[in-house]
Amino acid sequence: MTTPDHAGAKADKVLGRMISLSDETATLALGAAIAAQLRRGDVVTLCGDLGAGKTTLSRGILHALGHVGPVPSPTFTLVQHYETAQLHVAHFDLYRLASRDEIFELGFDDARHDGAVLVEWPEILGQDLTGNWLEIRFEDAGEGRSVCLSGHGDWVERLQAIGD
Ligand SMILES: Nc1ncnc2c1ncn2[C@@H]1O[C@H](COP(=O)(O)OP(=O)(O)O)[C@@H](O)[C@H]1O
Ligand SMILES: [Mg+2]
Known about the structure:
Blueprint: E1 2-4, E2 16-21, H1 24-35, E3 43-47, H2 54-64, E4 79-83, E5 88-93, H3 100-105, H4 108-114, E6 116-120, E7 133-141, E8 144-152, H5 155-158
Helix pairs in contact: 1-2
This protein binds adenosine-5'-diphosphate and magnesium ion (MG).
C-alpha cells in the first residue's frame, strides 16, 4: 500500500510517501494516524481540488484527538479553533486570501505557538515554512483517492509510523 515516492526538493529533509485511500473510512483512519503523531508547533498542509478530502481528513484528525461534533469547512470563517483534550488545533482555509500577510493577521503564528495548525489551500504560504511540517497532496484514484505525504523537520521520522 505504501511505497517511497519522491525525495522532494530537500532530499535530506523530505520523505515522500504515497498512500491509497479506497474510501472515506480510509481517509478518516489516516487522520487518526496523523493525530497520534501531532504536536504543538506542527503545520499540516492539505492540497487538492474541491472535494478531494481535505476537510474529511481534518475531521479524522480532530475526532481522533477527542473533538466531538462537526468539523465544518473553514471556507467562510477562514479559521476554526478547537480545544481538544490534548492539543489546541486551528483549522485554516486560505482559498479566499489575496495576500500572504493576511494569514498572519488571522493569527497563524499564534495558533502555531499555541498548538497545531491544519491548512487547506495552503498555496499562498509558498514552500518556505520552517520547522515541523507535514505536506499532504490529494489525487483522484478511481473511486477513491491517493495522497502523497512529505515530511519536513521531525515529520521525516514521524512519517515512518504512518501508513504501515
Ligand atoms: N478516500 C476517499 N475515497 C472516496 N471518497 C472520499 C474519500 N475521502 C473522502 N471522500 C469523500 O470526498 C468528499 C470530500 O469532501 P471534503 O473533505 O469536503 O473535500 P475538500 O475539503 O477537499 O473540498 C466527501 O464527500 C467524502 O466523503
Ligand atoms: Mg474543505
